[in-house]
Amino acid sequence: MTACPDHPSCVTLLRDYDFAASHRLALLDRTDDENLAIFGKCSSPNGHGHNYRLRVAVELGDDPAARSVDLDRIVETHVLKHFDHKHLNLDTPFFMDRLPSVENIALTIHALLAEAMSGSPLKFVGVRVWETDRTSASTSERV
Amino acid sequence: MTACPDHPSCVTLLRDYDFAASHRLALLDRTDDENLAIFGKCSSPNGHGHNYRLRVAVELGDDPAARSVDLDRIVETHVLKHFDHKHLNLDTPFFMDRLPSVENIALTIHALLAEAMSGSPLKFVGVRVWETDRTSASTSERV
Amino acid sequence: MTACPDHPSCVTLLRDYDFAASHRLALLDRTDDENLAIFGKCSSPNGHGHNYRLRVAVELGDDPAARSVDLDRIVETHVLKHFDHKHLNLDTPFFMDRLPSVENIALTIHALLAEAMSGSPLKFVGVRVWETDRTSASTSERV
Amino acid sequence: MTACPDHPSCVTLLRDYDFAASHRLALLDRTDDENLAIFGKCSSPNGHGHNYRLRVAVELGDDPAARSVDLDRIVETHVLKHFDHKHLNLDTPFFMDRLPSVENIALTIHALLAEAMSGSPLKFVGVRVWETDRTSASTSERV
Amino acid sequence: MTACPDHPSCVTLLRDYDFAASHRLALLDRTDDENLAIFGKCSSPNGHGHNYRLRVAVELGDDPAARSVDLDRIVETHVLKHFDHKHLNLDTPFFMDRLPSVENIALTIHALLAEAMSGSPLKFVGVRVWETDRTSASTSERV
Amino acid sequence: MTACPDHPSCVTLLRDYDFAASHRLALLDRTDDENLAIFGKCSSPNGHGHNYRLRVAVELGDDPAARSVDLDRIVETHVLKHFDHKHLNLDTPFFMDRLPSVENIALTIHALLAEAMSGSPLKFVGVRVWETDRTSASTSERV
Question: CA C9, CA B9: separation in Å to the nearest integer?
Answer without folding.
Answer: 24
